[in-house]
Amino acid sequence: MSHEAGWAHAPGALRGPAWLQPPADPNALVQHLWSQTAHKVDGELHVGGLALPELVADVNTPAYVLDEDDFRSRARAFRDAFAAYDVFYAGKAFLCTAVARWVQEEGLCLDVCSNGELTVALRAGFDPARIGYHGNNKTLMELRRAVAAGVGRIVVDSFDEIERLASITADGLSTRVMVRVTAGVEAHTHEYIATAHEDQKFGFSISNGQAFEAVRRVLATPGLELLGLHSHIGSQIFDSSGFEVAARRVLALQARVSDELGVALPEMDLGGGFGIAYTTQDDPSDPAQLATEMSKIVEHECRALGIPEPRLSIEPGRAIVGPAMCTVYTVGTVKDVQLDGGAVRTYVSVDGGMSDNIRTALYDADYSCTLASRDSAAPPVLSRVVGKHCEAGDIVVKDEFLPGDLRSGDLLAVPGTGAYCRSMASNYNHALRPPVVAVRDGVARVVVRRETEDDLLATDMGDQ
Ligand code: LLP
């Protein structure tokens, strides 16, 4: 049925946001929002060669389904497109030991930003020399551990941290570092995930001279080997103009370091943040296009400044794991709510919510979803997919056209949930965090199991 057929905008019907158009075929996937092996057979969603209704009959819902081939091919696409660079997979997007191994097997490096992420990486046998360690408030203990483990680079974020590192290297140890700078760029993304403007907690400001001072202090600290400057402007960014401004400012600092301190910094990191398509309104660049644009910018600026080109690195997280995962839920309650003005919004409640995907509530993020267990001939209605938590803001998908005959027991799948969903999942309302099931060539492997009630109670010490 099509938009023109007249069902979509019946009198009093909700229209939703302008970018959301009723689908021409409500049963079809919008393919580019899904992982590469996702397709439907008679209305059943298949990923990695497995029918999801069968899969969840085993593992239950909600469940994150991770398309291993898709993950690996996105990792390879970055590695190949940025062959002259080092590509660090940003583990904060999603990390478990299996994924750390895939990252290593595909020839990427790994960015960790906490002691916990480092633990997972080391447990997976990840080569510490290929790990970069981030964080705005690394403790002395954490730094000691990272240095002792032999991580390849520590990305220094404050003068306090330089002092902490100096106290470690005073014992005769040494480590490679980068200095994280803020380039004063207003990235066009949600305020909470923009990181290169001045008024936030990360990095040293280039404009007020702190970044230069940090470089000077690092260079003056025995045992610290300065690899170069690091800039991460934010996340879910689509246009390269932010990277261009940042690269220009970072390279200008690099030229100043060369002029005034006589040091040619060999490397530079431009961070991550490459956007993905959550809905039809997003139009991300592919890695090859990004690589061409970024290389051109750096080449051009270095030529203009008369400095040698540093070896570049980047840190994509979302763009590798985001599209590789979807979340499968079971529909429970379906409720039509009459709004002021007479329109009706259909609320579809699923068996998860803000505990497995906080991004909608936290960043006002948009997602899409599809009925994953059958075809439906019912006219789609504009629906809102909500969770089962005690909060009105517990929304998974704000607006989606879903079949009007959706009922309890149907499966819904939400694409693009690989990044920052499981990694930011919580036990709110004592929810059990869902498993991550890797699928490939018709085989499913639980790489992170579902939490149990014993897990929930494991830290509850009782009233002793
Ligand atoms: N490098 C650094 C220094 C970062 O801080 C981040 C993300 C990345 C790389 C990876 O960015 P990506 O390529 O994944 O966008 N929780 C938010 C995103 C926070 C990102 C934090 N840093 C979200 O759900 O959108």
Could you give the topology of this structure?
Elements: E1 39-41, E2 44-47, E3 50-51, H1 52-59, E4 63-67, H2 68-81, E5 86-90, H3 97-105, E6 109-112, H4 115-123, E7 131-133, H5 140-149, E8 153-156, H6 159-169, E9 175-182, E10 204-205, H7 210-219, E11 224-230, H8 241-261, E12 267-269, H9 287-305, E13 311-314, H10 318-321, E14 325-338, E15 344-350, H11 359-363, E16 370-371, E17 380-386, E18 395-403, E19 411-415, E20 436-440, E21 443-448, H12 453-457
Parallel strand pairs: 4-20, 5-6, 5-13, 6-7, 7-8, 8-9, 9-10, 9-11, 11-12, 12-13, 15-17
Antiparallel strand pairs: 1-2, 2-3, 4-14, 14-15, 14-19, 16-19, 17-18, 20-21
Bound molecules: ligand LLP.
Quick rundown:
Helix content is 27%, strand content 23%. With 464 residues, it is an alpha/beta fold.
Number of helices: 12
CATH fold-level topology of the largest domain: TIM Barrel
Report the strand count: 21
Mean pLDDT score: 94
Which structural class best describes the helix and strand composition? alpha/beta
CATH C-level class of the largest domain is: Alpha Beta
User: In percent terms, what proportion of residues is strand?
Assistant: 15-25%
The end-to-end distance, rounded to whole angstroms, is 63 Å
Bound compounds: ligand LLP
CATH superfamily of the largest domain: Alanine racemase
Instruction: Examine the secondary-structure arrangement and name the CATH architecture of the largest domain.
Output: Alpha-Beta Barrel
**Which stretches are low in confidence, meaning pLDDT under 50 for 5 or more residues running?**
1-8
From the alpha carbons, calculate the radius of gyration and give it in angstroms. Answer: 24 Å
- Percent of residues in helices: 25-40%
| Tally of separate domains | 2
The general outline is globular
- Please summarize the sheet with the most strands: 9 strands, mixed
Domain Orn/DAP/Arg decarboxylase 2 N-terminal: 69-322
Binding site for substrate: 318, 359, 363, 391, 420
Subunit structure: Homodimer.
Cofactor: pyridoxal 5'-phosphate
